[in-house]
C-alpha cells in the first residue's frame, strides 16, 4: 500500500527513556546524547505572542494643513526663543544676578514645557491605544481567536494596573490566563472581572451629574448661568469618566476626547431617538406642562446623561459584550427619582455600593 | 394509530408538567452520546463542578458568585436507579480509573439556588439521565419496519470491513428460508451470530457506530427474552409474510422489541428534552479509519433525526417540548494539543452538518466545541532533531500500544497523535480512503494514534475537595444552562 497521507505520522516518547530529556537542555553537549527534548508547557502564555500591526494606516498624501501649522508654530517658537535670549543677554549686561535668575527661569520653563509635551503626547497615545484596543476587541469577538485574546487581556490588565480596587479581579483573571478558554469567552471573562466595578461607578457619576444639572437649571433664574453650568458639568463628567476607565488624557487628549464624544453622539443620535427618547420627550412634555422650568431641568438632565453615556461608549476599553449597556431609561428614572430628594438617592447609591462590595468579597 | 396515541400521551404529560414547572423551572438536559463517548464522565464532572464548586470562569453565574449553592436532590423517578456520582468520583480521584461502561439507566437531579440578575432568589432544577450509549441506536428504529431494517442491516454487513466480520452469520443466513415454518432453534442461532457480528464491529480496531439494535450489545434486564431473539433475514419477496413462517416470527419479535423496549425508552427519557449535548468521540473513529468515521457520521445523522428541535414557543412548551439549544461536543479533546482543537471542531461540524442545518432552520441554536470534561493530560512541545511536535503528556492506560511500545499504565509518555488536517474533507473522502487506521493497519503504520490516558492526579483545593481539571466544560454549561441562570 502506498503512502497517501501527507501529514506528520504519530509518535510517542516515554519520559523514562534514556534518550528523552524533560525540560530545557542546559548544556550544548547534552543534545547529542539526548536526541529528544520534551518541554512541558505549564501555561498557555509561553506561546509566542504575535501582535498584528494595524492594517488601517493607509498611504496618504502630503498633509498641507498640518505642515502649515507646524511651520507656523516653529516660527513662533523661534521668535520667542530669540526674544528670550535677547532678554537674558540684556539682563546679564545690566546685572549678573538678574541674568542668572532669568536664565534659570528660562531653563525651568523649557524643562517644564518638555515635560508637559511628553505628558500630552502620552495622554493622546493612551487615548489612541484605548480606541485601538476596543476596535480589536470587536474584531476578536467575531473571530474568536485564542492567541489574540490573550494579548488583548494582557493589555487590559496593564491598562488597569493602576487601579488598586481591581486587584482582586486582576488576580482572578490572571489565574485563568493559563486555562484553555476560547477567545471570545476569555474577553467576556475579562470584561466581567474588570469592568463591572468601573461600570457601576460610571453609572453613579453620570446619574449624579444629570441630577445636579436638572436641579440647578430648574432652580436657577438666569439662562446664561444654565448654559455655562451644563457645559461645565458635561466637561467635568467626561474628564471623570476618562480617569475612571484609566485613560488619563492630557489637555490635548481631553480636547480630542470631547470631539470624539460629540461625533459619537451625532452618529448614534438617531438610534437613541428610536430607542427611548420619544418616551423621555413625552415625560418632558408632561413635566413642562406642570412647570416650564421643571421641564427645562429634566431636558437638560437628559442631555447630560446622554453625553455621559456617549462618553462611556467612547472611553470604555472593551465593547459591551458580557455586561449590559447602561440605558438612558435606567439613568433617567434614577435622576427623576432623585429629583428633589437627593438624600434618598444618595442612600440608595450607597446601598448599591455596599451590595457590590459584598459581591466582590464573595 | 399507534403513533397518534403516543403523541397524545406525550402531550398530556407535557401539559401536566408545564403547570408544575411554571413556578419552579426544570430543565431536562439530554446527554446524548454513543457508547464510550464519555457521558458518565461528563455528568460526573458537571455535577462535581456545580455542587462542589469547580473552576468555571466562563459560566457567568458561577464566576460572578450568583450561585448560592447547588445540591443533589432526590430524583423524580422512583423506578430508575440513582446516578452513582460518589463512586465515580471516588474511582476517578483515588484509583485513577475511568468509570466502566454504563449497563443500565440511572438518573439524577441537581438543584441550583441562585440569585437572578435583577436580584430575585430563584431555583433551577436540572434533570439528567445516564444510560448505555448503545441503546441510543434504537431510536432510529422507531420509524423503520422490520423489512426496512433487515435490508439496511444486510446492506451494511456486506460492505467492507464489516463483511469479513459477518462471515459466520452470512453463512448461517444463507441456510435460512424466510417463508419456511418458524423454528425457535434457527432464530436463536441467527440472533447469536448476529450479536457476535455486532460485537466484533464494535471492537476498538473497527470502532463502528451504526450497530442497531442496541440491546443486542447491552441487553440490560432483557437478556435471553424473545424480544431480543431475532435477526435480519434475506428477504427477496414483497408483501406480508406467510402466517407461521420464520419471517412472520422475526417480524413479530421486532415489533415487540419496538413497543416493549424502544418506545418507552424514548418516551421516558428523550421525548421531553429542553437542552441537549451530543457527545461524540470522533477521535476513536479517526483512530480506526475512514470507514469508522463514515459510519459515525451516518449514526449521528440517524440519531439526531429522532429529536424535536426548534425554537421554544408557548405552544411547543405546552404540548411538545422542543430542544432549543444543541451543543455538539467532540469529547476527549485533551488527547490533542490545544492548537488542534479548532480542527477537531471543524471535523465534528462536517460530520453533523446535515442535522445541524435542519436544527438551525427550525430555529434552534447550535454550537460546536472541543471538550474534555476531565482533562487527563498536560501539554508539551517535543523537539526531535529539527522538528517540533506539539504533544500531550499523560499516562497511557495499561495495554495501549503505539509504534511497538506497550504501556503498563504507570509510565508517563509524550504522545503526538498525528496531525489533524485543516480540511475535514481530507478525512471523509469516500473515494480515496485517504488515511489508514487500525482497521486496516497494524498500530505501527496507522496514520493516527489517540491513546487512552488514565485520569490525572487530582489536587485538593483550598476548601478540601478534588478539583477536576477540564477543557471548556464551563463554556458548555454556559451555553446549555447559562440563560436560565440569568
Overview of this structure, please?
The complex is a heterodimer of chains A (362) and B (486). Chain A has helices spanning 30-33, 64-94, 96-143, 146-159, 167-176, 183-219, 223-244, 251-290, 292-315, 328-338, 342-361; strands spanning 11-14, 20-22, 36-41. With 362 residues, chain A is mostly helical. Chain A has three domains: 12-41, no CATH class; 67-184, no CATH class; 195-248 and 257-361, no CATH class. In chain A, strands 2-3 form a two-stranded parallel sheet. The longest helix of chain A is centred in the first third of the chain and has 48 residues, at 96-143. Chain A is flat, with a radius of gyration of 29 Å. Mean pLDDT of chain A is 78; it is low at 25-32, 43-58 and 342-362. Chain B is of the alpha/beta class. Chain B has two domains: 2-135 and 268-375 and 466-485, P-loop containing nucleotide triphosphate hydrolases (Rossmann fold), CATH 3.40.50; 136-264, no CATH class. Helix content of chain B is 37%, strand content 17%. Chain B contains 17 helices and 15 strands. Chain B has helices at 2-21, 39-52, 60-63, 85-95, 146-157, 162-165, 167-174, 184-202, 214-217, 246-269, 282-288, 290-304, 314-319, 341-351, 353-361, 425-428, 473-481, and strands spanning 26-33, 67-73, 81-82, 106-115, 121-130, 275-280, 325-330, 365-370, 378-384, 387-394, 401-402, 405-406, 413-416, 459-460, 466-467. In chain B, strands 1, 2, 3, 4, 5, 6, 7 and 8 form an eight-stranded mixed beta sheet that branches. Chain B has a three-stranded antiparallel beta sheet with strand order 9-10-13, with no helix packed on it. In chain B, strands 11-12 form a two-stranded antiparallel sheet. Chain B is globular and about 70 Å long. Strand 1 of chain A pairs antiparallel with strand 13 of chain B, so a sheet runs across the interface.
Amino acid at each position: 500500500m502506498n503512502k497517501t497521507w501527507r501529514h506528520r505520522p504519530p509518535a510517542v516518547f516515554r519520559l523514562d527513556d534514556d534518550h528523552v530529556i524533560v525540560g530545557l537542555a542546559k548544556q550544548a553537549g547534552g543534545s547529542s546524547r539526548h536526541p529528544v527534548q520534551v518541554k512541558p508547557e505549564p501555561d498557555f502564555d509561553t506561546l509566542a505572542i504575535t501582535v498584528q500591526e494595524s492594517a488601517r494606516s493607509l498611504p496618504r498624501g502630503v498633509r498641507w494643513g498640518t505642515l502649515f501649522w507646524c511651520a507656523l508654530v516653529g516660527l513662533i517658537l523661534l521668535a520667542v526663543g530669540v526674544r528670550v535670549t535677547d532678554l537674558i543677554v540684556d539682563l546679564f549686561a545690566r546685572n549678573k544676578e538678574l541674568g542668572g535668575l532669568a536664565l534659570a527661569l528660562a531653563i525651568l520653563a523649557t524643562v517644564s514645557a518638555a515635560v508637559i509635551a511628553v505628558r500630552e503626547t502620552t495622554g493622546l497615545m493612551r487615548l489612541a491605544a484605548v480606541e485601538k484596543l476596543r476596535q480589536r476587541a470587536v474584531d476578536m469577538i467575531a473571530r474568536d481567536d485564542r492567541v489574540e485574546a490573550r494579548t488583548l487581556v494582557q493589555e487590559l490588565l496593564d491598562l488597569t494596573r493602576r487601579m488598586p480596587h481591581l486587584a482582586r479581579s486582576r488576580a482572578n483573571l490572571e489565574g485563568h490566563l493559563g486555562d484553555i478558554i476560547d477567545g471570545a469567552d476569555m474577553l467576556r471573562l475579562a470584561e466581567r472581572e474588570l469592568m463591572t466595578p468601573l461600570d457601576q461607578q460610571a453609572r453613579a457619576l453620570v446619574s449624579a451629574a444629570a441630577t445636579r444639572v436638572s436641579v440647578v437649571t430648574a432652580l436657577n433664574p438666569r439662562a446664561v448661568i444654565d448654559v455655562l453650568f451644563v457645559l461645565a458639568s458635561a466637561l467635568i463628567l467626561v474628564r471623570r469618566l476618562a480617569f475612571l476607565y484609566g485613560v488619563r488624557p492630557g489637555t490635548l487628549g481631553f480636547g480630542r476626547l470631547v470631539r470624539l464624544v460629540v461625533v459619537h453622539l451625532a452618529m448614534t443620535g438617531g438610534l437613541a431617538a428610536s430607542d427611548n427618547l420619544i418616551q423621555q420627550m413625552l415625560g418632558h412634555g408632561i413635566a413642562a406642562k406642570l412647570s416650564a422650568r421643571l421641564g427645562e431641568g429634566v431636558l437638560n438632565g437628559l442631555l447630560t446623561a446622554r453625553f455621559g453615556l456617549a462618553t462611556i461608549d467612547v472611553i470604555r476599553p472593551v465593547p459591551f459584550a458580557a455586561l449590559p449597556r447602561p440605558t438612558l431609561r435606567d439613568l433617567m428614572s434614577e435622576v427623576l427619582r432623585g429629583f428633589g430628594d437627593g438624600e434618598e438617592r444618595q442612600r440608595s447609591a450607597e446601598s448599591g455600593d455596599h451590595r457590590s462590595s459584598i459581591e466582590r468579597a464573595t | 394509530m399507534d403513533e397518534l396515541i403516543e403523541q397524545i400521551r406525550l402531550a398530556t404529560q407535557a401539559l401536566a408538567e408545564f403547570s408544575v414547572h411554571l413556578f419552579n423551572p426544570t430543565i431536562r438536559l439530554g446527554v446524548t452520546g454513543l457508547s464510550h463517548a464519555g457521558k458518565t464522565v461528563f455528568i460526573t464532572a458537571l455535577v462535581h463542578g456545580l455542587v462542589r464548586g469547580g473552576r468555571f470562569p466562563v459560566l457567568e453565574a458561577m464566576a460572578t458568585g450568583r450561585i448560592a449553592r447547588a445540591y443533589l436532590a432526590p430524583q423524580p423517578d422512583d423506578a430508575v436507579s440513582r446516578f452513582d456520582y460518589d463512586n465515580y468520583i471516588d474511582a476517578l480521584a483515588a484509583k485513577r480509573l475511568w468509570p466502566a461502561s454504563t449497563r443500565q439507566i440511572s438518573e439524577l437531579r441537581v438543584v441550583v439556588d441562585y440569585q437572578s440578575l435583577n436580584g430575585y432568589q430563584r431555583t433551577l432544577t436540572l434533570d439528567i439521565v445516564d444510560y448505555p450509549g448503545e441503546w441510543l441506536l434504537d431510536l432510529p428504529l422507531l420509524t423503520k419496519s422490520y423489512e426496512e431494517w433487515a435490508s439496511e442491516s444486510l446492506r451494511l454487513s456486506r460492505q467492507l470491513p464489516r463483511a469479513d466480520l459477518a462471515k459466520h452469520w452470512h453463512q448461517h443466513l444463507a441456510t435460512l428460508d424466510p417463508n419456511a415454518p418458524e423454528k425457535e432453534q434457527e432464530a436463536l442461532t441467527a440472533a447469536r451470530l448476529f450479536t457476535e457480528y455486532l460485537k466484533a464491529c464494535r471492537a476498538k480496531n473497527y470502532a463502528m457506530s451504526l450497530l442497531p439494535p442496541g440491546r443486542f450489545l447491552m441487553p440490560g434486564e432483557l437478556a435471553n427474552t424473545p424480544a431480543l431473539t431475532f435477526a435480519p433475514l434475506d428477504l427477496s419477496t414483497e408483501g406480508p409474510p406467510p402466517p407461521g413462517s420464520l419471517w412472520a416470527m422475526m417480524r413479530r419479535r421486532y415489533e415487540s422489541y419496538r413497543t416493549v423496549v424502544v418506545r418507552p425508552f424514548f418516551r421516558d427519557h428523550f421525548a421531553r428534552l429542553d437542552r441537549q449535548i451530543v457527545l461524540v468521540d470522533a477521535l476513536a473513529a479517526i483512530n480506526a479509519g475512514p470507514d469508522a468515521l463514515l459510519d459515525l457520521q451516518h449514526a449521528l445523522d440517524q440519531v439526531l433525526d429522532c429529536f424535536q428541535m426548534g425554537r421554544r414557543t408557548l405552544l411547543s412548551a405546552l404540548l411538545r417540548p422542543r430542544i432549543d439549544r444543541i451543543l455538539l461536543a467532540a469529547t476527549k479533546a485533551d488527547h490533542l494539543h490545544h492548537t488542534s482543537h479548532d480542527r477537531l471542531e471543524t471535523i465534528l461540524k462536517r460530520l453533523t452538518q446535515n442535522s445541524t442545518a435542519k436544527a438551525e432552520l427550525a430555529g434552534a441554536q447550535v454550537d460546536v466545541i472541543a471538550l474534555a470534561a476531565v482533562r487527563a493530560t498536560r501539554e508539551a512541545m517535543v523537539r526531535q532533531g529539527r522538528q517540533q511536535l506539539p504533544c500531550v503528556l499523560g499516562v497511557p492506560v495499561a495495554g495501549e500500544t503505539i509504534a511497538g511500545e506497550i504501556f503498563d499504565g504507570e509510565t508517563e509518555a509524550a504522545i503526538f497523535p498525528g496531525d489533524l488536517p485543516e480540511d475535514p474533507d481530507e478525512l471523509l473522502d469516500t473515494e480515496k480512503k485517504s488515511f489508514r487506521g487500525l482497521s486496516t493497519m497494524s498500530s505501527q503504520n496507522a496514520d493516527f494514534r489517540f491513546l487512552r490516558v488514565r485520569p490525572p492526579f487530582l489536587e485538593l483545593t483550598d476548601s478540601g475537595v478534588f478539583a477536576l481539571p477540564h477543557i471548556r466544560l464551563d463554556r458548555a454549561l454556559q451555553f446549555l444552562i447559562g440563560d436560565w441562570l440569568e
